[in-house]
Amino acid sequence: xxxxxxxxxxxxxxxxGTLENLCELVPEASDLLKGKKPVSIGFxxxxxxxxxxxxxxxxxxxxxxxxxCDIKLPFSSPAKFNGLIDGTVTxxxxxxxxxxxxxxxxxxxxxxxxxxxxxxxxxxxSDREFFVRSxxxxxxxxxxxxxxxxxxxxxxxxxxxxxxxxxxxxxxKDGPGTTLRVKDHRLLGIKAPPExxxxxxxxxxxxxxRDLFDGNVNAVASIGDGSIxxxxxxxxxxxxxxxxxxxxxxxx
Length: 252
What we know:
Blueprint: H1 4-15, H2 19-25, H3 27-33, E1 39-45, E2 50-56, E3 59-64, E4 71-75, H4 78-86, H5 100-118, H6 128-152, H7 154-160, E5 166-172, E6 177-183, E7 186-190, E8 199-203, H8 206-213, H9 219-224, E9 228-232, H10 234-250
Parallel strand pairs: 1-4, 5-8
Antiparallel strand pairs: 1-2, 2-3, 5-6, 6-7, 8-9
Helix pairs in contact: 1-4, 1-6, 2-3, 3-5, 6-7, 6-8, 6-10, 7-10
């Protein structure tokens, strides 16, 4: 069972939020924004999340709220916003009609590139550079999705209630890393490794991380054979694994 509101938070921060990383990692994405006038798009979901994407100088960043956006896209419910992400809803701006060309052109192309990396064709993964970028983007998205599930999903909140304060490091050996910061049983996904983690989950290779993300190997078996290294406060990792199981349901 999944929750529509939780999915909206995941779609906002874990999916659209990954455009930040896409513009850092993929030249094809950043080139779309170079030489363009800065513009921002606000997504305002009634009863759900609210955030703005700012595009400038080939880069993208997300901030909470929609007070300073050039284009504002209102959604009457989390379900309507989820429809934007799955392609079944076409939003009508309530502000910023003069920027509609950016929305229909550059922004649409950016989301198409993101989809290409987040849901790649099998043959695309044979290219090493594409493989590394795609897996790095997935790590960021999954980290943020874990936090949204912990904070919004009923089962996720129950799991989070058992996690002590501190930073959990999600690391790929010789590759990227992310942080899940726990404070008062609420989680924040940070797209960079922590300086002083209280618990660590490290994948022995980017290939293993990819297999886990794609559901091709079992996490418990990988822990058993040492392919995943755990250290620190193991109870934090145990509960993280429960949250990761929920991520698989939402991002399936």
